[in-house]
Fold:
Amino acid sequence: MSFEPSLFVDPAALAIVLAGTALGTLARCGWRGMGAGLAGAFGLARRDFDPAANRAALARALQMVRERGVLGADPALPPDRTMRAMLERFLRSRSREAALEEADAVRAAHQTQAERAAGVFDTAGELAPVFGLVGTLIAIAQLAPGSAESMVGLAMGAVAQAVISTLYGVTSAHLVWYPLARAIERREAADAAARAGIVRWFAQELARPRSVRGSPVRGVA
Structure:
């Protein structure tokens, strides 16, 4: 028996599964949740966190602080939001502890956003098979009494749509929605580990005994 790809194409069944999954996910997660999910998905297409560029920017900032003092330094900020917030807090407060607190706060915000985004696609993965079943029920509901010949044709068409709807629900859950959720989690875990390494290095640099001109810096001897 030859394989016919066209047998697995049913726009009506696909529309039921996709539209139902989207509406069900929106009902559970709300607009903010959906926005976080879309942001997380599109974020996968962006370049990973660049440790080298951010560390280099922080190193230049530290060098400027050592040469001009905290008050006189006006360094270029790192490209990453966490690193940027940490450096800005340090320059404002002249406190190592405050800078690390800011880094922790932004890291926690990143993690919360990633968890929310992954949760949206986990919800979609749960709902997709359900709406595959809905497509099955709709297909069966189309059967109506008629002549024997018409009933055979309707029954065959309804069974085909029912099977395809279930297939779309299960495959979209396990090949699209759940993988997206795990990909968002992996990206956040990798970026968080890279950021943590730079934060530790930055903290060690600030803790080194150095003479810094300008206003005294708490946490820097």
